[in-house]
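Notes to self after the call with IL:
- keep both proteins in one doc
- input above output, always
- annotate only the second one for now

Protein 1:
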Amino acid sequence: MNDTLLTPVLLYQDSDFCVIDKPFGMTTTPDRDKASLVQWAADSLRMKTLHPLSRLDFEVTGAVLFAKSAYAIAHAHDIRGRQNDREYHALVHPAPSENAHWRWPIGKDKRRPERRLIGGIDPQDAHTEMTLAETRGGFAWLRLTPHTGRTHQLRLHSAHAGCPTVGDVVYGGLKRVTLRDGRVIAAGRVMLHAANTVVPNGPRVEAPWREDMRLFWEALASLSRPTE
C-alpha cells in the first residue's frame, strides 16, 4: 500500500500563511539530498520565503502550516506555541482502553541520534491529548492533539502508553496483519497523519487521509490476528 499523493498539494493560502499537504517520503525542510516541502514551494509555487510552524517526519503525511510574510515569520514563535491548533490521526495496536492525557518528558537517545526517549538526555516537558475515535479488531484510530512540539512526540508517547503506531518499527509498531481470508497486509510507513490545522485568524484546514491509511483501516474489519 503506497501513498497515492506523490506530490504536495497547496490546501490554503492567504497573505500571511499557507497550508501544504505533505506526501510520504518528503521532509518539511531541506535535508541533504532529500526532497522537501520548502524547496517544492519555492520551485512550484514561487514562494521564496517560507517558515514552517510545524514539521512532519519523513514518513508522516498531512497538513503543514507555513508563515510566508515578514509579519507572520516575525511572530512565528508565538504562533508555533499554540500546538493545540493541530490534530493528528494515528492507527495503533493494541487499542488503548480510554481517552488520556500523556505527559512524559522527552529527551535525546545518546546511542541512536535519530531516536528520542522518555526521559533521555536533556528532557523537555511533553503533553499529548489522546482521544479514542474508534476500535477495530484490537486496533484503534486515535485523534492526537500535541500541546507541545517535541521531536517524535506523538510516536513516542503512543509507544510508551503501550499502543505504538502501526508501521513505526523504530518505536515497536506492528508492521503487518493477517486477515481472516489469509491475506497479509503490510504498513509501508508510519500510520500517522496530520489531519487538520488552524490558520491564525483563518479557517481550520483539512488534509484527507491517504489511500494507504484508509485501505489499511478498512481491511481491519476482517481482522484475524496480528503477526510480527
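Protein 2 (the one to annotate):
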Amino acid sequence: MSTESKKFDQYEAEWWNPAGKLFSLHRINPLRFGYFSSIAGDLNAKRVLDVGCGGGLLAERFASGGAKVTGIDLSPVAIEAAKKHAAASGLYIDYRAASPSSLLADIPDAFDIIVCAEVLEHVDDLDGFLKDTLSMLKPGGLFFFGTINKTLKARLLAIAVAEDVLGMVPKGTHDFKRFIKPSTLMAVLKANDVEIEEIKGMSYDPLKLEFKISGDASVNYLGYGRKRG
C-alpha cells in the first residue's frame, strides 16, 4: 500500500459524517453525481466500477440509481466503512480492498462505466493505473473523472487555502507534484483508446459557501471520455 492510500486509513468514522473532516466531499458529491448521471442517462443494470471509492459516497449514488456497482480502494479501513454504510442503507455494492491490476486479474469482464473521482491526484503511477483501469472499460463505455489541475492557482487554493486556512480538507491531503494538467490526462487516456469529450470546472463560490459546475478548470475539474471501438 502506498503512503497516499495510508492517509485515508484514519478516516473510518469520518466518511459518512457530513460535518466531519471530509465534509467537502459531501458538498461536491451531489454536484459530481448530477453531472456524471446526466451524461450516463439510465443507470438501470449498467455495470459501474468506482476506482478509489473511499467510503462509498459516489458508489452509493450510482447503486441507488439502479446500477450494478463494484467499488475498489487500497484502504481496507475505507472499504469496511463503505460496506457498513451500504448494508445499513439496504444497498448491495461489491466492495473490495483492491487495486485495478488485482481486480483485472479477478474480474476480466468489462464495465459500462468507470469512475475515478478525487483519486487520480493520489496514485503513484498514473500511466500504469489508468492502463489497468481502462482495460476494464467496454468499447463505447464512459470514463468519468474528477481531479485537480497542476497550476499555481490550484496550489494556492487547493492546498494553502483549502487545507491550511479554511480546513475544508485535512492538512497533508494533497501533494502539488501529483496534480494533473488536463493535457497530461488527455494524452494518457488517448493512449488507452479513450477520447475526452468534455472537461468542466468545479469551482468554489466563497459567497454562497458551495461548489458549482463552471467553465473554469484551473483548479478542480471533472469530465468524461468514451472508449473507442
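Annotation: The chain has a mean pLDDT of 92. Residues 23-40 form the longest helix (18 residues).
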